[in-house]
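Narrative summary of target 7.
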Amino acid sequence: MKKPVPLILDTDIGCDIDDTWALAMILRSPEIDLRMVTSAAFDTTYQAKLAAKMLQIAGREDVAVGIGVHGSGNLEGCSNITDWVEDYDLSSYPNLYEDGIDAMVKHILTSKEKVTVLAIGPCTNLAAAIQREPRIVENSRLVFVGANLYNGAFRGWYPPLGKESNINVSIEAYRIGVEKNDWEVELIPLDVSGCTILETAYFDHIRETAKEDLLMAALVENTDIWFKNMNYDYHGPTSALFDTVGVYALISRELLNYERLPVYVNDKGITLIDPMRGKMMDCAISWKDKEKFYKFLTARLCGEV
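Modeled conformation, tokenized:
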């Protein structure tokens, strides 16, 4: 097996539920050396609580947790799993950094190995880190779960050339943090991450595993709280697990088709393939076998592969 990928996970965990699934998948993946989790974009203290509690349950207090740039304005709807951490004392986490941007920058600059930053939330922390220390691009690469290239995953109900939330929270942060710098970028757009839903049989298997597995029990509990607080019409399957595709891309490209494309986001937040203005990125554009991914994701979370 290859040497594990040194990773910083930059996440808006606790808004949608897929970030929690992505963190659990990382914690079950020996191909990944998780070094740090930074909370991004919204109520970053609440998000840091979620990450820290999940890490403690997994016995991974060696992983640093950094509080990222706090969101501004109306944050309603961005704290959908508060019930799970309302009594959690974040100061009890032994590897906590109040300035997550400083911690991210220092870790990248001092790492003996090139670090991968997996960004599965808005780009506010990425922009802050680049502005604080542009040299981080020399010892790191970025895998960004965002954008909507060809609309393949949402054809029929999502607007053609639709916007994508991780970019549209702050287009300027995206431009600073992703587009207008020398970071090597791998892009995981909605074309492959969208409609990534585990059907009932797969989720039932995870629920059964959770009866004797503390990490899976935490994942299922988080998911059920999210369903309740989102008034989700739950009937067996999961909701969309977008960010798990970004984790899979760290492990393997076997099931994904890639193209190197010039990607540009205009002032309306629309992602375009633009040879004149775009930044060249390695883009996952379609699946070779999505059902095989679902089987892998389920087995990996359950510790079976």
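The first helix runs from residue 18 to 27.
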